[in-house]
Write a structure and sequence with these properties.
This protein is mainly α and 242 residues long. Helices cover 77% and strands 0% of the residues.
């Protein structure tokens, strides 16, 4: 009975939340509503800004403010951690405005949004490093920033994108290192070696690549491969810890 009551209250709250949204955003002229949305945005009131921008977007989808409203929504969704909505808005804007003068910024925001998907609130809160979490958002972000640099090398966002690509590369290398270590602990020696070699080939200038040599060495020792052990020991000698 308690669960039913709780479910009923939640359903009612959602119902009233949805039905009262139009009351939150008065039906005023678009210029006035846009000015109010900008004021909220500048003040960092993301939820209120979203309400007003969404109202503008739904009431005047082809109005004078249409493109700028979508750009503003991309930004406030990112700031408010509404990442799925942000990516959907980016996709919509890119499809409708493929040659827009701010497409470099849109690509940059897509990269930032994908990067934010790799962040976990609880990990941030307790300062937990989880290199083994799914790297797909990181790969997507890397591709976004790479595309920005290829298409808009003179963009004001190019330099920061390049810095972020460097950080993302290290994140991907750390994931491969964690995977290789997992294989080693599971005594999957061949799988550990292959992942280490792939890491070294793809991300040779990372700290993870250097660390992977120790995992590779341990796996070769378990397999008793003398020549491979000697080669890996030589690589470790040539790549000392910094």
């Amino acid at each position: 009975m308690k669960y039913q009551t709780l479910s009923g209250l939640l359903a009612l709250s959602l119902l009233f939340g949805c039905s009262s949204k139009d009351n939150i955003v008065p039906d005023v002229p678009p210029s006035e509503l846009y000015t109010e949305a900008q004021s909220e945005l500048q003040s960092g009131n993301w939820l209120t800004a979203i309400d007003k921008l969404e109202a503008l977007d739904s009431r005047y989808p082809f109005g004078a403010y249409s493109e700028q409203v979508q750009l503003d929504l991309i930004y406030v969704y990112y700031k408010n951690d509404d990442l799925a909505l942000g990516l959907a808005t980016i996709e919509r804007f890119s499809r409708l405005n493929p040659t827009h003068e701010k497409m470099d910024w849109v690509l940059y925001m897509r990269g930032l949004t994908h990067m934010a998907q790799d962040r976990n609130f609880m990990h941030d809160l307790f300062n937990i490093e989880r290199s083994d979490r799914d790297p797909e958002p990181v790969k997507a972000a890397f591709a976004d920033f790479k595309k920005l640099l290829q298409r808009y090398p003179d963009s004001p966002y190019a330099e920061d994108s390049q810095r972020r690509m460097f950080a993302l590369k290290n994140r991907l290398a750390e994931y491969d290192l964690a995977t290789a270590d997992f294989y080693l602990r599971r005594e999957a020696w061949i799988a550990a070696i292959k992942r280490c070699q792939e890491l070294q080939k793809t991300y040779p200038d990372t700290e993870a690549a250097r660390k992977s040599l120790q995992i590779q060495l341990a796996a070769y020792k378990e397999l008793g491969l003398a020549d491979s052990i000697a080669r890996t020991e030589k690589l470790i000698e040539l790549n000392p810890e910094k």
